[in-house]
């Protein structure tokens, strides 16, 4: 089994920050971490990190597309292009995120992801699907296509789940049948997540007791915090069991809200996402989003109505933005880029630089730009 030694690295992992350390990879697993001055093992390949940061690969659990493609295009070419481009952002695993479209289109999207993952993929790994919609409140549709909105349907979930594993479903918890739907999702080991919702705090408490532990693009398209009606934002802040997703692109959340969420929830319950659409990494212009036209100006995507339509955020740029705002050490912030996602969704042996964990790891410069990305122990860039 081939051994790779990464030397002279600044190792950053949850609650770990070691300068001038070395990491041994054996096959696709991390086999050891060596502090400065320790004797180093022999290896087939030695890589000098030259002081760069070595961190767990990012896990983006909310990404619709990139590089001109969308997962709902339903083609192997689209999936391959998105997955390869996400590597450039330091993302080693993605939940392929769908839009509110027809079941026929969702079926094609999941089949394309299944084909990609069964063909020795060269891009980021896709351990599961994040189904955003179509079970959402029409009044909170945001940039989701209202034509395809429907009531919660667990049989539809089962049909799609049989094509490729669904890891997470984002839906409105106030809809008819939504509480039973929450329980049914949890029984299938699919994470229920609140999204596009006008629900009350009392609804969130009920759903949380039934297994809901995520809130999708926190603060966006959900009932706000009010001193007389606590809302979903207040509930997400207060509930210690719930993880919250955050789009930290400077458009979806103001700096003060990002700072407040990290103060109240802490790095252990926050998850950075992109919610990227097909215009991520592309120039300004017009793009399709689930059958609707979105215009990107200065990196901000909007529908003709003016509604913000996903993001064009690159993952590492979001992390840099959060570091600049919060001033928190990377050994804390790095929990929000991979470890929280892995442990909340049951993705085994991901999200840490630790012996026995999968060597999905990245080298970053001081501005958090990825330089070398390792997937299953192999450098990909």
Fold and architecture overview:
With 381 residues, the chain is an alpha/beta fold. Helices cover 25% and strands 29% of the residues. The radius of gyration is 20 Å and the shape is globular. The model has no long low-confidence stretch (mean pLDDT 96).
Task: Briefly characterize the structure.
With 381 residues, the chain is α/β, with parallel strands linked by helices. It is built from ten helices and 21 strands. It has two domains: 3-55 and 351-379, Urease, subunit C, domain 1 (Roll); 58-345, Alpha-Beta Barrel (TIM Barrel).
List the helices and strands and how they pair.
Elements: E1 3-13, E2 16-26, E3 29-34, E4 45-48, E5 53-56, E6 58-63, E7 65-66, E8 69-70, H1 76-87, E9 91-98, H2 103-117, E10 125-132, H3 154-161, E11 166-171, H4 178-187, E12 191-194, H5 201-209, E13 214-215, H6 231-238, E14 243-247, H7 255-264, E15 270-273, E16 285-289, E17 292-297, E18 300-303, H8 315-326, H9 330-333, H10 339-345, E19 361-364, E20 370-375, E21 378-379
Parallel strand pairs: 1-4, 1-5, 6-9, 9-10, 10-11, 11-12, 12-13, 13-14, 14-15
Antiparallel strand pairs: 1-2, 2-3, 5-19, 7-8, 16-17, 17-18, 19-20, 20-21
Helix pairs in contact: 1-2, 5-6
